[in-house]
Amino acid sequence: MPEKRPCWLVKTEPECFSIHDLAACPRQTTSWSGVRNYQARNFMRDQMQVGDRVLFYHSSVDPPAVAGTAEVARAAYADATAWDPKDQHYDPKASPDNPIWQMVDIRLDEIFPVSVPIGTLRATPGTRAMELLRTGSRLSVQPVTPTEFDLVVALARQAAGDAKPAQQSKPASSRRPTPPARVSRSKKPVKAAARRTR
Fold first, then answer.
1. Alpha-carbon distance 76 to 102, whole Å?
2. Alpha carbon distance 151, 154 (integer Å)
3. Is residue 132 included in any domain, yes or no?
4. For residue 1, is it within any domain?
5. C-alpha distances in Å from residue 193, one per residue of 45, 106, 173, 190
6. Residue 26: strand, helix, or coil
7. Sign of CA pseudo-dihedral 54, 168, 62, 123
């Protein structure tokens, strides 16, 4: 039996970039740029693969919660915002020849009708060991076990009471490859701020 691929959780502040913003992107896909933490970068660069499942977490809200799921649509590649002096995540040490920072593309899978708040994760035995709940953990990209991922989805189903189906993107087979949406720094200059860990 093949080993299950790891899953992931990405954090974002919804007033900067929410799961509904992801849904509004062309092909419901965006580049996850602006990550400036080495461990989070290494997860994207060394471990994330196309098709990996992702929990989409809204932070800095009351309460913080998992708002839905996504998938990795493109493996890691150079984050060009790092050498753009006009970008808020500019790193003077980075360049096209020495990119330093990486990003992946993620594509929406579904938006939960009812988000799964952090309190529910803390109270559920199967999710209490999540990296998200570890004291002092601030990683904006972090691993999640397949069991934890499936349990969070089950908690969302339970919360919704199966009253209505989750909003889903088109099946992968019906999508055609297109360039991912890039965050507009001119309209929303802080949009990618939540995608990194200070």
1. 6
2. 5
3. yes
4. no
5. 20, 17, 32, 5
6. helix
7. negative
Q: How far apart are CA 67 and CA 109, in angstroms?
A: 11
Residue 97 CA to residue 11 CA, distance in Å, equals 29
> Which range of residues forms the domain containing residue 143?
7-195
Q: How many domains does the chain have?
A: 1
Tens digits of residue pLDDT in 121-171: 999 999 999 999 998 888 999 999 999 999 999 999 999 885 455 455 444
Print burial letters for 58-67: b (CB count within 10 Å at least 16), e (below 16): bbeeeebbbb
| Beta carbons of 31 and 89 less than 8 angstroms apart | no
Question: What is the CB neighbour count within 10 angstroms for residue 165?
Answer: 9
Average pLDDT over residues 27-40: 97
The count of other CB atoms within 10 Å of the CB of residue 162 is 9
